[in-house]
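User: quick one, fold this
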Amino acid sequence: MYIINLHFVGIPVYISLINYCNIWAFIMLDRQQFLKKMAEIGHEPTTQQLEKCDHYAAKLAQWNERIKLIGPATKDHIYMRHILDSLQFLDNVPRGTIVDVGSGGGMPGVLWAIFLEQPITLCERIGKKAAFLKTMVRELDLSSHCDVVSDDILNEKRRFDIITARAVTSISDFLDLTEHCLAKDGQYLLMKGGRYNEEIELATKKWSFDVELHNSLTEDNAKLVILSNTQRR
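Assistant:
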C-alpha cells in the first residue's frame, strides 16, 4: 500500500492512495450532482461563478478544521448540502438590500453575492467566523457589493429590504432580534428545517404576518419561509 502526503484543500493529510482516490471521486460526484440541480432550476453557473464556488468550497473545508462552520455530518457534502441549499432559492430573492444575520460560514450570503449583484451585508458577531467571511469577500472579489459587519445584529442601525438567515434561531426570537432592521415593505427569507410549522405557530402569538412556503431540494421537510407584512401584535 502506498502512503502519500498531500495538501487536500490546504490541509496536510496522510492517507493511502486508494483512500485519496475514493475521497476525490466522492467530491467530484457531489459537485456533479450540484451542477445538475443548478441546471434544472435554471441557474447553471458561468465559468467564473463555478470557479468561485469551487474556491469557496475548498476554503470552507479548510477553515472548518480550525473553527466550526459546518456540522460534521455535512462536511463531505459541501456542494449539495451547503452551496446548493443556499442557491436553490435565488428566484425567490427580490431586488433590494440584503442582510444575512449570523452568516457564519457565509450561507446563504456569500453564495448569493456570487450570483447576485445587489448589496449584501454579512452580519456575524463571532470574530473568527467574521474573519472567514472577510477572507471570502476579498478572495472572491465581492467587495463591490458585499460587506461584513463583525458585530451583533442588535447594534445594526441600517434597515434592509430583505433579512435572511439559515439555522440561526426560532422565527419568533429572530423577529425580536431583527425588527429594527427591516425596511418598510421588507421581507424575511428564512431557511428552516422540519419544525417550521411549529415555529410559525409560535411566532403568531406575538406577530402577525403573511407567510409563503417553498420546498427545499436538499432536505426533506425543510422550507424557505418568506414572511411579509410583519407586525408585532
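User: anything notable?
Assistant: The radius of gyration is 18 Å.
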